[in-house]
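Section 3.1 - Work completed
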Amino acid sequence: MQRKSSRCPHKYIPCYLLFIFTLLAGSAHAKIFICADLPLIEITAADNSMVEDICDASGKAIVFLARYQLHPKRVIMIQMIETSIDDHGYLAYGSYDRQSDRIQLMSLPSILQGSPPPEMYDQPFDEEHYYGAIAHEIAHAVFQHNTGTIKDQLTSAAQEYLAHATQLGVLSPARRTRIIQASNVGPWEAGDSISVTYMGLRPTGFAVKSYLHLTQMQDPQPFINLLLHNNWFYISVP
């Protein structure tokens, strides 16, 4: 997991700048790390053990999203935690809150210590899937940054489409191919309804269909615009 940067021993800001602050009254001090090559990524953590990986994964997500003219508009704040997240009734490794514009993210060791053994897309969870989980939450934040005047979508289908496509998009080609082949589904087709109901029933199928649909379109920008302005319970594929 150790990667070196030609600019700095680590790809986060302690080579340049470091802030110390108190999260809550009476709590232990936590540090804010700013990714050296990504000044819009700020990570709040007790130490730097996961910072380099978060910076790398965030960078991959931002590069993937830039293909579709989607860019961060303001600082993306990531808070590292050691406990699972209750996301509308189910346990999650990460969560993006639209109101605070902040990501909560479990550390990799805390995820791997979970019981039963954690999985992602019907595979054992590992370091590469952790990169995907980080990218998923970055996509949620970037999506919200680009929605314009829409504040509260009635459904998260549009966001989840983009988040899962990004999550698969940052994986290695070999890992992504194995997931796609095992899912035995194709891309979303004209007339399909993209919904969180399908995602709940077949999360891996939802992710694969979304990735294939997004990456196989010759001109994806009209559909990206549709996602950003969707305010209904599902997305009807044109």
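Second construct:
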Amino acid sequence: MAVSCDLWVVLGPTASGKSALALALARRLKAHILCVDSMQVYRGMDVGTAKHSAAEQDQIPHHGIDLANPDETFTVARYVEHAQQTLADCAAQGVAVVAVGGTPLYYKALFEGLFQGPPADEQLRQRLRDSGGAALHQRLAQVDPQAAARIHANDLKRLVRALEVYELTGRPISSFHGDWGQLRYPARWLGLSWDRPALNSRINARVKAMIEAGWIPETESLLKRFGQLSSTAAEATGYRQLIQHLEGRLSLADAIEAIKIATRQLARRQIKWFRRFGQVRWIEGTLPLEQQLELALRAPLVEG
């Protein structure tokens, strides 16, 4: 098991309030924050990825954010390398860490290791891409129903990789992933839970607030500076719809509605993933923040 600091993990779907709980916990513990979010790694994508404010980042050291420009491709391996170094440095300093974010794959890779599949076959990948997302998802449902259940039909990148692994190995990609097992780092695992109607209402309100906070000019500025987002940065929920609006292909009202729908779909996927993490102590999101904090501080240490 890797050497670790006093580590706390705060999970939850988008708009669940996990960032507020993580900040409160970090203040109480005098801890650093490690963001576990595949989109907060990009510089300049601040409003649309709900990064903590500059003032909050000044008060509490943050790691795992602003690691790449939006026109760069960013990998899970690169994130894990950064996060492992952060945990090692904090352990050496005797500093606690609160890990918070909504990217299940990043948690799995950090705590269990990366899936080492066959190397990429570009010719095979192009052939798969040419089939289109709907056909790929249908094919994946036939050969690997478990993977098809967690990969959306529009997620071409992951569909291609799942089928590439199957074609090259004869085994479904889900058979390589397996369930959560031995954890590399002892930690206290917390999660915020909401019923679906309440969470959907929070998502709708947050999208509205983010638009009012300058999400559209932020997106316009990114396009002017970088030309276009990389394939990985473009996966960030909402930016694609706002780009379509800025290009005149989508009205603002339609773009906002599409973002709300996409965000609700994201939340459902996150909940499905996070519920598989049996070590999480779930806390009702409707509770006042101070009560959430007191319950969080009682969470047991999970050794792995």
